[in-house]
Write a structure and sequence with these properties.
Blueprint (H helix, E strand, L loop, with lengths): L1 E6 L13 E5 L6 E6 L3 H5 L9 E5 L5 H4 L2 H10 L6 E5 L1 H14 L7 E5 L6 E2 L3 E7 L7 E7 L4 E3 L1 H6 L7 H6 L3 E3 L5 E3 L4 E3 L5 E4 L18 E5 L4 H7 L8 H10 L4 E5 L17 H9 L5 E4 L5 E4 L5 E4 L2
Parallel strand pairs: 3-4, 4-5, 5-6, 14-15, 15-16, 16-17
Antiparallel strand pairs: 1-2, 1-18, 2-3, 7-8, 8-9, 9-14, 10-13, 11-12, 18-19
Length: 323
């Protein structure tokens, strides 16, 4: 599985960062899923190999503009480029109302099947590539986090069991792995389906929307390899800003990740006040976010940048992919 960050700024874009959007690709196939679609997401896509025509679903966490203003433009470009395949749009009801208003007042025409699914705690969306569930979060408006778990897992063969039954390696192994029935030289008949098992455990990740209570994702994070969560501020800045924005600090997210023993944590959605590189004395930098998170979390920590790509290997290891 691969993750490609298309935008990592909160509220407004900066010269280095666009607003929220994250692409998730399965190991096999060209289909992919988009979580959030901030303004100019389709411009960001032009700098990747991702094809909007292969997009299978868009999952919107909440109605705030930095998470959905890019939606009408992306959908319109899919129409102009000749899309015919169905597209699922998941999110709060307000997202659909917003889109319908844009359609009405701009004469936007969408002729391919666009299926809106209102998100709820009972969401169980089954795409070809992923199963998707949702968890309600704590923000100023209705907001959700999404768990994606892979569905297409290659078949492996239980060779240990076969050899314990006296079936030694041979071309018959290939037939058994395909689920076929075979007859052994000694006359025994074996059903391949009885000896097939997944080649690896299903990989899963959680992507949180804006949220000031990371612990709400406790159940969703069980068995996942990585949590992607906003860290809009450091704790000291969050205390100055106050509780009204309902965002998390790096400290709070890292504490939660450590309490759950999550193998990897990717932080994103940084306030524009944090520079990638400190250019003047006293200027806030992302080093403050990183240092605060490292003070609480001893797993694999990453701070996402626009166009950063990460892979989740079959053994569950999360790694940044070099450009």
């Amino acid at each position: 599985m691969n993750l490609i960050f298309l935008g990592t700024s909160s509220g407004a874009p900066t010269r280095q960062r666009n607003v929220s959007a994250l692409a998730i690709q399965p190991e096999r196939g060209r289909g992919w899923v988009l979580v959030d679609c901030g303004e100019a997401t389709q411009h960001q896509l032009l700098r990747t190999r991702l094809s909007p025509l292969k997009l299978k679903a868009i999952l919107i966490t909440h109605i705030h503009g930095d998470h959905c203003y890019g939606l009408p433009g992306l959908l319109a470009s899919c129409q102009l480029n000749g899309r015919t395949e169905p597209l699922a749009l998941v999110g709060p009801a307000a997202v659909w109302s917003y889109l319908q208003s844009v359609i009405e007042h701009t004469e936007l025409r969408i002729e391919y099947p666009l299926e809106f699914v209102e998100v709820s705690e009972g969401l169980a969306l089954e795409l070809d590539e992923f199963g998707v569930t949702a968890t309600q979060l704590s923000h100023r408006v209705e907001c959700w986090g999404y768990r994606l778990e892979e569905r297409q897992i290659p078949q492996g063969l239980d060779t240990t069991r076969l050899q314990s039954e006296g079936v030694l390696p041979s071309p018959l192994y290939g037939q058994l792995q395909k689920g076929e029935q075979v007859v052994l030289p000694d006359g025994r008949e074996l059903n391949g389906a009885d000896y097939c098992l997944p080649a690896h455990a299903p990989r899963a990740l959680v992507v949180g929307g804006d949220n000031d209570q990371p612990e709400l994702l406790t159940a969703a994070c069980k068995g996942t390899q990585v949590l992607v969560h906003e860290a809009t501020y450091t704790e000291s800045v969050l205390q100055k800003v106050g509780p009204e924005p309902q965002h998390s600090s790096a400290l709070r997210v890292a504490k939660f990740a450590q309490s759950q023993q999550l193998p990897a944590l990717i932080l994103t959605h940084f306030s524009p006040r944090y520079r990638k590189v400190q250019r003047r004395k006293g200027e806030a930098s992302l080093d403050e976010i990183r240092d605060e998170a490292l003070s609480q979390y001893d797993g694999d920590l990453f701070l996402a940048d626009d166009f950063d790509s990460f892979s989740i290997s079959r053994d569950g290891r999360v790694q940044r992919i070099d450009a």
